[in-house]
């Protein structure tokens, strides 16, 4: 079931070496060695090792985890700081004849630490997919506004604006999260129905301990041409979705309770996503571009998506100041960056916590 994720002020000289994972075991490669050279250690661990010879400090990076170590004297012990949370005592790496050497016991300890961390990661809740939904499209142009900008008549059309922002967002998320599914409900000027959009989102296969989030992108309009600013919507808390199908082992009498608990968790996480996106807007735009805050409504795509979901209103196409931003490629990139920053913050918090609350 889906769950509901000092640096020194000095001139540093680092030797950075990259090796593709898939290493053989230490005993197989260096059975007769009491210590491994840096290239041998890289091969044995299948990771990145950074070493600062001036500070005699190093760091091992692998699979999103890291181990900081200090180079000492042969035969002594050292403390390794793993993921900035755990201290492990092991035989210290040392230098001899100008070469950096790693005791086999040190290598074995690191292999065990990283293997344990990777196994734990598999058990933690994570965001496995992000659905980006550019509103409208095709025959449905959405909101439109025409203004005189730089002496020219410019028409800002919602379906075009939100597609460009969504495409930029998609590219940024794909680059940042190659291990996650980043999907769009439309990639061109097509018209998927509201039902099509939620079917796409609800059909994404998820493993146990995996979660998915939904972001619908829109632009606003008003008869009041002075109305401007951005806002983020989530589903009205009073609305209850049917999230569980009862196909598991949960007794029928408990199903409504578990459904309500899961829906409440999705609502809380939707508010967290909305808050993070608003923070992203505040970070990327000047204070003169106003925030209209977080709001609740029963939008179709939000109430029919079985996951945390938000709807982002970029600005008003009917307001000239907002339209200037929405008609400028640099402005559209800033909108994309703002949403990306918000999602990145939410994903980091969700995954560090292991999914906030894991309902089973």
How many domains, in number, for the residues? 2
What integer is the average pLDDT? 87
Which class of the largest domain in CATH terms? Answer: Alpha Beta
Q: What count of helical segments does DSSP give?
A: 9
The CATH topology of the largest domain is Aminopeptidase
- Strand line-up in the sheet with most strands: 1-3-4-5-6-7
One letter per element, helices H and strands E, the order comes to EHEHEEEEEEEHEEEHEHEEHEHEHH
Describe this structure in words.
- The structure is a single chain.
- α6 (255-284) crosses α9.
- Mean pLDDT is 87; it is low at 1-33.
- The protein is an alpha+beta fold.
- It has nine helices and 17 strands.
- The chain has helices at 26-30, 38-45, 104-123, 158-176, 194-202, 255-284, 300-303, 320-326, 329-353, and strands at 15-17, 35-37, 48-52, 57-62, 65-70, 77-82, 86-91, 94-96, 99-103, 126-134, 144-149, 152-157, 181-184, 210-220, 230-234, 291-296, 309-316.
- The protein is globular and about 80 Å long.
- The relative contact order is 0.15.
- 35% of the residues lie in helices and 27% in strands.
- The strands form four sheets. The protein has a six-stranded antiparallel beta sheet with strand order 1-3-4-5-6-7, with helices on one face. The protein has a six-stranded mixed beta sheet with strand order 13-10-14-17-15-16.
- It folds into two domains: 15-122, no CATH class; 126-353, 3-Layer(aba) Sandwich (Aminopeptidase), CATH 3.40.630.
């Amino acid at each position: 079931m889906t769950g509901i994720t000092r640096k020194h002020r000095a001139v540093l000289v680092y030797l950075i070496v990259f090796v593709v994972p898939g290493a053989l075991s230490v005993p197989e490669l260096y059975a007769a060695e009491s210590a491994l050279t840096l290239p041998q250690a890289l091969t044995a661990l299948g990771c990145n090792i950074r070493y600062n010879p001036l500070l005699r400090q190093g760091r091992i990076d692998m699979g999103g985890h890291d181990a900081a170590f200090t180079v000492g004297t042969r035969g002594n012990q050292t403390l390794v700081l793993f993921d900035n949370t755990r201290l492990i005592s092991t035989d210290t790496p040392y230098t001899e004849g100008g070469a950096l050497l790693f005791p086999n016991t040190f290598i074995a300890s690191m292999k065990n630490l990283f293997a344990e961390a990777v196994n734990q990661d598999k058990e933690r809740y994570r965001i496995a997919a992000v659905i980006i939904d550019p509103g409208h499209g095709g025959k449905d142009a959405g909101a439109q506004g025409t203004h005189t900008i730089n002496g020219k008549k410019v028409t800002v059309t919602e379906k075009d604006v939100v597609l460009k922002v969504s495409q930029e967002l998609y590219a940024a998320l794909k680059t940042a999260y190659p291990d996650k599914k980043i999907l769009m409900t439309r990639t061109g000027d097509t018209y998927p129905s509201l039902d099509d959009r939620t079917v796409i989102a609800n059909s994404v296969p998820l493993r146990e301990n995996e979660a998915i989030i939904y972001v619908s992108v829109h632009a606003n309009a008003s008869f009041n041409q002075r109305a401007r600013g951005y806002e983020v919507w989530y589903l009205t808390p009073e609305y209850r979705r049917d999230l569980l199908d009862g196909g598991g082992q949960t007794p029928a009498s408990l199903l409504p309770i578990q459904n309500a608990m899961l829906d409440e968790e999705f609502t809380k996480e939707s508010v967290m996503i909305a808050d993070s996106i608003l923070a992203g807007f505040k970070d990327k735009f000047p204070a003169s571009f106003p925030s209209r805050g977080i709001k609740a409504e029963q939008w179709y795509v939000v109430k029919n998506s079985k996951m945390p979901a938000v709807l982002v209103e970029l600005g008003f196409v009917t307001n000239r100041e907002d339209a200037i931003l929405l008609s400028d490629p640099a402005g559209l990139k800033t909108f994309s960056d703002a949403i990306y920053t918000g999602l990145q913050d939410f994903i980091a918090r969700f995954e560090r916590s292991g999914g906030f609350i894991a309902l089973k």
